[in-house]
Design brief:
Blueprint: E1 8-10, H1 19-34, E2 43-45, H2 47-56, H3 63-71, E3 76-80, H4 81-91, H5 105-113, E4 115-119, E5 130-133, H6 137-146, E6 151-155, H7 158-165, E7 171-172, E8 182-185, E9 191-192
Parallel strand pairs: 3-4, 3-6, 4-5, 6-8
Antiparallel strand pairs: 1-2, 7-9
């Protein structure tokens, strides 16, 4: 082998530190499998496989640039602890040389600079332009939603579900719609209120 990143990797070999290698969804699945959740045995394609396939198909892999533009529609990002830690690992600047493809950089710069709120009962502090939210999740998010601005994007798996259970979400918003005054979850195509 030439030392390049593999094209596939088994879920059992993935943890949250592998976001740059397998993407957020792959890292989430690996982390869930390691935590004992009933995740079927399987594998994921790596970001290298995606880049090679896109190049071979003549497809512009600039979707992260589109994602970077979508971040302009919100004032801040709202993450749970696990998603925050994985996103920080994958996107915090500066990245080690060769850790990312050039087409990933617009998104990396944008998410690195974005304001973030982190919901956690276990973290003592956060960095990476983030503020820790503790206590009553519903009250904290309602307060954030009352602040003026474009709105919030929610990332993760458990947090959007918890917000839905609290009645803080009411409809889906498409990836191209504005987040103004709303709570949008890109992990679920945009939950909004």
């Amino acid at each position: 082998m030439d030392g390049a990143a593999p094209l596939t990797i088994y879920l059992a070999e993935i943890d949250r530190g592998a976001v740059a290698l397998v993407g957020g969804k792959g890292a989430n699945l690996g982390e869930l499998a390691r935590a004992g959740f009933p995740v079927p045995n399987g594998f994921v394609l790596t970001t290298r496989a995606y880049a090679l396939a896109a190049e071979a198909a003549g497809v512009d892999p600039a979707r992260p640039a589109e994602a970077a533009e979508n971040l302009d529609q919100a004032d801040a990002l709202l993450f749970g602890r696990v998603t925050y830690e994985m996103m920080q690992e994958a996107w915090r600047q500066p990245a080690p040389a060769g850790a990312r493809h050039d087409w990933m950089e617009p998104f990396a710069r944008k998410i690195d600079a974005a304001k973030k709120y982190v919901v956690s009962s276990t973290l003592d502090r956060v960095g990476w332009n983030a503020e820790l939210l503790r206590g009553d999740l519903g009250k904290a998010v309602q307060q954030l939603k009352r602040e003026p601005g474009e709105g919030l994007f929610v990332g993760g798996v458990e947090l959007p579900l918890a917000l839905a259970e609290l009645g803080l979400t009411s409809s889906w918003c498409s990836s191209g719609s504005s987040a103004k005054g709303r709570l949008c979850s890109r992990g679920y195509r945009g939950i909004s209120t």
